[in-house]
Design goal:
This protein is mostly helical. It has twelve helices and four strands.
Length: 334
């Protein structure tokens, strides 16, 4: 089926009120494979971007300082040496996270969609720029070129929703954001952060239902969703489309709207494994990093394959468990 020819109402498809990264029903193997592939690709892009900006690397088991390009837009992170410094920054991150969540709920309550879209637009532009600067060859006017690319792409993503543009940009957004946080976290603070995020995820999905409500609001009202987003049509809908094509009713097909199910994987479930792997990269090196990435991937895979139909699941506890196994094995082996 050529989905680009089907006029879907922009992100207004009836999502099954899924939480960030959770499964309300078991997806078929194809959809599961697509989500897992996008997750894994983003992890490796993230490692490349994080490594590009890293000012320290592990060489022969020793951490050495290296000269690295700085982050753009004045986002330079402080050089932290003592555990107390990491602890102070960590507290600031938690406070900022709480403030962001409260602000988000205030904006949702008062239905100030244009401010939320502008917020997303700015964040997406900055994150894309950081990732593109790491990937593209460096030259005198590279920042200008990157902005020429990032600004219109971010505009299309936020204001002219397209499933293809949405998912392709997600591959770069989370690596860009992770590059900001990796330098100011160490192994102790990232472990605590993952525990807190996992507990919050369980509370928000299983107790309060906040994640389901936020996902539904983003998809149906804001028409901007932070995470991977894969629509699926039923067999009946596919048969209808095939029949309309066979009877040369392409004009009608272009105007018809379908209510489809969607499979989603939230942004938090993608970015935190990148940050954890980035911290391991500067702490123990590439092999430990790959173990952590593998652990996160297996944790998510287990959730996808063993989730029961019509039940909601927070993804971070499963992903974090896989990350912790990778961290433990890394310290035992390396």
């Amino acid at each position: 089926m050529h989905r680009e020819k089907v006029a879907l109402p922009q992100f207004e498809e009836r999502a099954r009120e899924k939480s960030r990264g959770s499964l309300a029903m078991k997806h078929n193997l194809k959809i599961t494979a697509i989500l897992l592939a996008m997750f894994l690709i983003t992890q490796f892009i993230g490692l490349y971007v994080v490594n590009h900006y890293a000012n320290s690397k592990v060489v022969n088991g020793e951490v050495v300082e290296v000269q690295a390009p700085g982050l753009p837009f004045g986002l330079e992170t402080p050089e932290l040496k003592q555990q107390s410094e990491f602890n102070q920054i960590f507290i600031s991150i938690i406070v900022a996270f709480v403030i962001a969540i409260v602000l988000l709920f205030v904006l949702i309550k008062f239905k100030v969609e244009f401010i939320m879209k502008l917020w997303f637009f700015v964040v997406v532009t900055i994150a894309l720029s950081i990732a593109l600067l790491a990937i593209l060859p460096s030259f005198k006017y590279i920042l200008l070129v990157v902005l020429i690319i990032a600004i219109p792409v971010a505009f299309l993503k936020i204001y002219k929703t397209s499933f293809l543009i949405h998912n392709l940009t997600e591959l770069l957004i989370y690596p860009g954001i992770a590059a900001v946080f990796v330098p100011i976290l160490n192994i102790y603070t990232i472990v605590v952060l993952l525990i807190l995020i996992s507990v919050y995820d369980m509370w928000a999905v299983w107790h309060s239902g906040i994640m389901q409500k936020m996902a539904k609001y983003q998809i149906n009202k804001l028409k901007v969703f932070g995470g991977f987003f894969v629509p699926t049509l039923s067999k009946k809908q596919k048969a209808m489309i095939k029949k309309m094509k066979a009877t040369n009713k392409k004009d009608e097909l272009g105007k018809k709207k379908f209510k489809v199910n969607v499979a989603i994987l939230g942004g938090g479930d993608v970015i935190f494994p990148i940050i954890a792997a980035g911290v391991m990269l500067k702490t123990l090196g590439i092999y430990a990093t790959l173990l952590v990435t593998l652990g996160a991937f297996l944790g998510l895979t287990g959730l996808f394959f063993f989730a029961q139909k019509k039940k909601f699941y927070p993804a971070m506890p499963f992903i974090s468990a896989g990350i912790f196994v990778g961290v433990i094995l890394s310290y035992l082996i390396f």
